[in-house]
Write a structure and sequence with these properties.
36% of the residues lie in helices and 19% in strands. With 674 residues, the protein is an alpha+beta fold. The chain has five domains: 6-62, Helix Hairpins (Orthogonal Bundle), CATH 1.10.287; 74-320, 2-Layer Sandwich (D-amino Acid Aminotransferase, Chain A, domain 1); 325-407, Nucleic acid-binding proteins (OB fold (Dihydrolipoamide Acetyltransferase, E2P)); 439-584, Orthogonal Bundle (DNA polymerase, domain 1), CATH 1.10.150.20; 603-671, BRCT domain (Rossmann fold). The chain is globular. The N and C termini lie far apart (71 Å). Bound molecules: 2-(butylsulfanyl)adenosine. 2-(butylsulfanyl)adenosine is lined by residues 82-84, 115-118, 122, 138, 180, 232-233, 294, 313, 316, 318.
Length: 674
């Protein structure tokens, strides 16, 4: 790689961030996510901190975002529309609280007002003697655009403020209500479905769509799009009457606008953190997108007294959730061999924190994907990670290249065993190592066999599997059952107790249930649910082995590709030997007995998540009472058990077929029968 040149890097970062800003704030287009841009800004600010001489007047750190678009009348705001500084964790939150406490009289009891930070566009709406008069976008904070005609079409914006006993003091004269214009997630989805049907390009995200809509010059177009206004601030000459933000929200509601009902008061940092955790977990359930909370000092006089630094009030902060995207550099790209032999290019990254955890590797899926995205070694890339999902490289930032980046060349041979990589069909995207004895394949396959969803053998994690392979003790899944305590004691990783434990844990799994065993074999396309469906239908390994493609495809939920993969698996000599070895080592599968019980003859499908048990547990408990557990609703299904976060598709199908829908409690009642 070329020698690091901070000046050149800063100039390139500056150019790219400005480009992003222009697209985002002026044209309402997004060329990368806000989190990725923040990550670049962070890198630039670190360079500027170290080398202040590199700060240029056009650096993003030197300017306030957003220039009003020509085409709308420009209007001066009655008071500046400010931004918020961010805090990302408990330490930064406490530091903010400490800073504030130092500025206020000693012993002042602080209350905090908390609301969800909505991802939309800010708008100030002015009422004159309670009648809708003007709506102004944020613009640069001092001057915004007059979007009165457009905002008038938003149904949640009252054209006259409601008169109630609580609102009456704020109706006379000038009343300004500030808030966020948002498009709800489900409306956005519907809109994009319509766009696709009409052959038009899809919109990028709800925020941009809302912003783009408000800046349409034709209000009729705006009226056709579903937008909503959620208020967060009230400005009235009767300011002395609005002592707290809490009161402001109550008044906003009584004036007839939406103010988020979950907004509430906290008395300590602990309470703020609890609220933050709660909404981080539940944010999916909100109708709009959010990336954190807004925390304000509840007492509005104290808030005002704390003043403004730069463009943000001292008395408020945005308490963000960990960013799901960040930028980092690709140090190298290597190829990893999976349990089915799939050769997957993986990017080795400079460690970066994404969604609260450090990411060092990200899958690139396959050779074609690396070239389609044009990801090169040495590139700065955007990495995405949401919750527990595997981190992914979204795209390289080509403008940051300095010429030293290297293209990735897919190896022709397995990096582990040296066998030539092959493709099943020329059209397939994935190269595979065909050597079933490849150590990488065995390692992943045995690890998978012992893992939680399969045989669930305690103490047989990836590291121990690797040690056992390296010591020559195991080569395939069946070998596990030949492991003896004396063998283990020769390895550094094991002592008397741990060796005993592992041998016992393995012995305890000598009669595995058929579905778990089937899943553990690692047959391509046979996931946990398919394994359950196969076991339900064929009852024994022998029946399954003898099944034809047609017989397999006839099973509900099994398509031709899966059927072919199963037949192909049983035909391979190494798998025939493997099954024979299991037999020799006395691994006896629990046959799927047609248990009779109170649920005999009844078929169940579970949709969504259950609170009291996992799907596997539900399947096992239903079977133990004689019932059948299916993966999808058909006309043979008797009950659809509806859990939380349900998929719409299954419900629609059940409704069409007239399948009885029951909740988790009803299932528990049925299971409790004798
Ligand atoms: S309170 C000083 N409450 O976030 C401005 N703002 O980054 C703070 N926002 O421009 C106003 N949801 O448009 C507040 N519940 C909420 C908000 C919220 C979104 C926006 C607001 C502001 C930006 C600041």
């Amino acid at each position: 790689m070329a020698k690091y040149d901070p000046a050149a890097r800063a100039a390139k970062l500056c150019e790219l961030i400005n480009d992003y800003r222009y697209h985002y704030h002026v044209l309402n287009k997004s060329i990368m996510s806000e989190a990725a841009a923040d990550s670049l800004k962070h890198e630039l600010s670190q360079i500027e901190e170290r080398y202040p001489e590199l700060i240029t007047p056009d650096s993003p750190s030197q300017r306030v975002a957003g220039e009003p678009l020509p085409g709308f009348k420009q209007v001066q705001h009655s008071s500046r529309m400010l931004s918020l500084n961010d805090v990302f964790d408990e330490t930064e939150l406490n530091a903010w609280i400490e800073r504030i406490k130092k500025l206020l009289p000693a012993g002042a009891k602080l209350e905090y007002f908390m609301d969800i930070k909505m991802d939309g566009l800010a708008c100030a709406i002015v009422y004159e003697d309670s009648v809708y008069k003007q709506a102004i976008t944020r613009g640069d904070g001092f001057v915004g655009e007059d979007v009165t005609a457009n905002v008038r079409t938003i149904e949640s914006v009252p054209l006259r403020l409601r008169q109630t006993k609580d609102s009456v003091k704020f109706l006379g004269g000038r009343t300004e209500i500030r808030g966020e214009i948002v498009m709800y997630k489900d409306d956005f989805k519907k809109l994009n479905e319509q766009q696709t049907k009409a052959g038009k390009p899809a919109f990028a995200n709800p925020r941009n769509t809302a912003a783009g809509t408000i800046r349409q010059l034709d209000p009729k177009l705006v009226a056709a799009r579903p937008l909503h206004f959620h208020a967060y601030d009230l400005i009235h000459e009767n300011k002395a009457e609005v002592l707290t933000n809490d009161f402001a929200y109550k008044t906003l509601c009584s004036l007839g606008v939406i103010a988020n009902p979950m907004a509430t008061v906290a008395n300590s940092a602990d309470e703020i953190i609890k609220f933050h955790k709660k909404w981080e977990q539940q944010r999916q359930k909100l109708r709009f997108n959010t990336d954190g909370l807004v925390i304000k000092i509840n007492d509005r006089r104290l808030h005002e007294r704390l003043g403004v630094v730069g463009k943000a009030p001292r008395g408020s902060v945005a308490f963000k959730y960990p960013a799901e995207q960040a930028t980092t550099k690709v140090k190298d790209i290597f190829v990893s061999i999976g349990r089915t032999g799939a050769a997957t290019p993986v990017a080795m990254l400079e460690p970066v924190v994404v969604a609260g955890s450090t990411v060092q590797m990200a899958t690139l899926h396959n050779e074609g994907e690396v070239h389609r995205k044009d990801i090169r070694i040495g590139d700065t890339v955007i990495v995405h990670k949401a919750g527990d999902v595997i981190p992914e490289v979204v795209e390289p930032l080509k403008k940051l290249r300095d010429g030293s980046e290297k293209k990735f060349v897919m190896p022709t041979h397995c990096p582990d065993c040296g066998t030539k990589l092959v493709k099943a069909k020329a059209t397939e995207a994935i190269w595979r190592c065909p050597n079933t004895a490849c150590p990488s394949r065995s390692w992943k396959l045995i690890g998978h066999f012992a893992s939680k969803g399969a045989l669930d053998i305690e103490g047989l994690g990836e590291k121990n599997v690797m040690a056992l392979i390296q010591a020559g003790l195991i080569r395939d899944q069946a070998d596990i059952y030949s492991i003896k305590k004396e063998d283990l004691l020769k390895l550094e990783r094991f002592a008397n107790i741990s060796a005993d434990k592992l041998v016992l844990a393995i012995a305890a799994k000598k009669n595995p249930p058929l579905p778990r065993f089937l899943f553990g074999l690692g047959i391509r396309h046979v996931g946990e649910q398919t394994a359950i469906d196969l076991a339900n239908h064929f009852h024994s390994m022998e029946n399954l082995r003898d099944a034809t493609i047609d017989e397999l495809s006839a099973v509900e939920g099994i398509g031709e590709v899966v059927a072919e993969a199963i037949v192909e698996w049983f035909e391979q000599p190494v798998h025939k030997k493997l099954l024979a070895k299991f037999k020799r080592l006395e691994v006896e599968l629990q046959a799927v007995r047609k248990t009779t019980g109170p649920l005999s003859g009844k078929s169940f499908v579970v949709t969504g998540t259950l609170e009291s048990m996992s799907r596997e547990e539900a399947a096992e408990r239903i079977r133990a009472k004689g019932g059948t557990f299916q993966s999808s609703v058909s006309n043979e299904t008797d009950y659809l058990v509806v859990g939380a976060n349900v998929g719409e598709a299954k419900l629609v199908k059940a409704r069409k077929l007239g399948t009885k829908q029951i909740d988790e409690q009803k299932l528990l009642d049925l299971l409790a029968q004798h």
